[in-house]
Amino acid sequence: MTCPHAAAANGTTVAVPTGAVVIDPLVQDLDGETARLRDAGPLARIELLGVPALAVTRHALARQLLVDPRLVKDLDAWDLWRRGEVTHEWPLIGMIDAGRSMFTVDGAEHRRLRSKTSQALTPRRLEEIRPDIERFTAELLDALAEQAARSEDGVVDLKSVFAQPLPMRVVGMLMGVDEAEHPMLLSRYKAFFSMLTPQEERLALLAELDVFYTALVRERTAHPADDLTSALILADEGGEPLTEEEVVGNLKAMVAAGHETTIGLVLNAVRALLTHPDQLRRVLDGEISWENVIEETLRWDTPTTHLLMRFATEDIQVGDVTIPRGEGVVISYRAIGRDTEQHGADADAFDCGRPAPIRHMTFGHGPHICPGAALSRVEAQIALPALFARFPKLRAAVPDEDVTKLPVMTQNDMAAFPVLLNG
Ligand code: STR
After folding, report:
1. What is the mean pLDDT of the chain?
2. Which residues contact residue 322 at a Cβ distance below 8 angstroms, ignoring those fewer than 6 apart?
3. Per-residue pLDDT, 13
4. Best substitution site from 186, 252, 306, 409 to test ligand 1's pocket, by max atoms within 8 Å of Cβ?
5. CA 51 to ligand 1 centroid distance, Å
6. Which of 256, 190, 244, 186 is nearest to 216 (CA)?
7. Higher pLDDT, 423 or 268
């Protein structure tokens, strides 16, 4: 059957099988949707704005498929794309067609595209930038206090004043993106991810971002600086240098992934602790480690809800179902974090007192596993204890039901998180 939604959202009509879990672009019931996905089985049929795909909803299956070379990132392996049924009119195409980079390429070429970035983000290398992250955190804690003092009711938005600028400054420093550009980047990414943005506008802003990043890469080509963008431009000894397109692609992927996901990690951890005051007390008493808070937040309230997309280059047999050649496969990280087979019957409960290590898969698995995982952990390890040390009476300024999500399908994004700093 043809989904009526398809015509509206996509401009084309694609046949979506009946019974597919429809992913709500307005994110009105994320937990209900996650439960429906889980109930639909390890490989759930889903519909993304009129476009059918399969979603992996189990930890064990994701572990297997994320190392299967028959699933690739190459968009040309997607039947719906090759047949012209999915086009640039589809609002989610920018999540897949993001330029040549470590995010979109597999195999030996992927290793070539990724190696310098992963070397720059090892725990040892990250120790060098810890003092910078601590300084950004201290400055933003001051900004929180100032904003709260200026507002009549003492309410301040923890997202826009703290959780959002912190990772943007960190990734900006790493990649060499001037702080003056951060507001421009944040507002463009907000529009990019929002399903309320008309597609022509989204395509235009992506083109503008390309112009911006290309100019930055050309500037660093002429005048190398001490940042990862400059390092990506230079060839390794004897190695093939990355092309300008590849450097731009990696830079885009780093800035987008490096800020957007960590905002979610920090905010979701604060929210989980404030809604579980007994657990917060045990954390502040030193009974539960911040590390466990961070890992449990990553599992229970994943920054990435769905990761788009991989394509089957052959039929892939999975138990009693087949992923047909040419089909699109989404990794549904939120459902995977709530997998009872992996995390037990209480997988839907936030419990940072769970025995460590909490074996979640929120950073992915296999060759594309998040190269920024250690960086995001360092950021959260610095930001969370510092926030609660400075404002031990921190509390939410609105009832938890009133904390709203942005209309973003792939990311778990709060619109804002209003808090009171001093109880
Ligand atoms: C956004 C648009 C763009 O210019 C480049 C990329 C590539 C990396 C993507 C990013 C995207 C969207 C958010 C992603 C990120 C990699 C990790 C991050 C998918 C498409 C996650 O949410 C896990």
Report:
1. 95
2. 315, 316
3. 55
4. 252
5. 20
6. 244
7. 268
Residue 23 has pLDDT above 70, yes or no: yes
Residue to probe by mutation, ligand 1, list 75, 92, 95, 245, most atoms within 8 Å of CB:
95
Tens of pLDDT along 350-386? 999 999 999 999 999 999 999 999 999 999 999 999 9
- The kind and range of the H/E element at 416 are none
Please give the Cα distance from 165 to 169 (Å, whole number): 6
pLDDT in tens, 226-240: 999 999 999 777 778
The CB of 95 under 6 Å from ligand 1? The reply is: yes
Q: 1-10, 118-127, 163-172: lowest mean pLDDT where?
A: 1-10
The residue written with tokens 């100019």 in the block is 215
Q: Say yes or no: CB of residue 54 within 6 Å of ligand 1.
A: no
User: Ligand 1 center to residue 256 CA distance, Å?
Assistant: 6
Residue with tokens 């509206």: 8
Q: Is the CB of 253 under 6 A from ligand 1?
A: yes
Distance 309 CA to ligand 1 centre (A): 11
pLDDT digits (tens, 9 = 90+) for 70-118: 999 999 999 999 999 999 999 999 999 999 999 999 999 999 999 999 9
**Ligand 1 centre from 260 Cα, in Å?**
9
Distance 411 CA to ligand 1 centre (A): 10
Task: Report the pLDDT averaged over residues 301-330.
Answer: 97
Expressed in angstroms and rounded, the spacing between residue 95 Cα and the centre of ligand 1 is 6
| Max Cα distance, the chain (Å) | 61
- The residue type found at 289 is S
Long-range contacts made by residues 340-348, C-beta under 8 angstroms, separation at least 24?
A: 341/58, 341/59, 341/60, 342/58, 342/59, 342/60, 343/59, 343/299, 348/31
In b/e form, how buried is each residue of 369-379, taking b as 16+ CB within 10 angstroms?
ebbbbbbbbbb
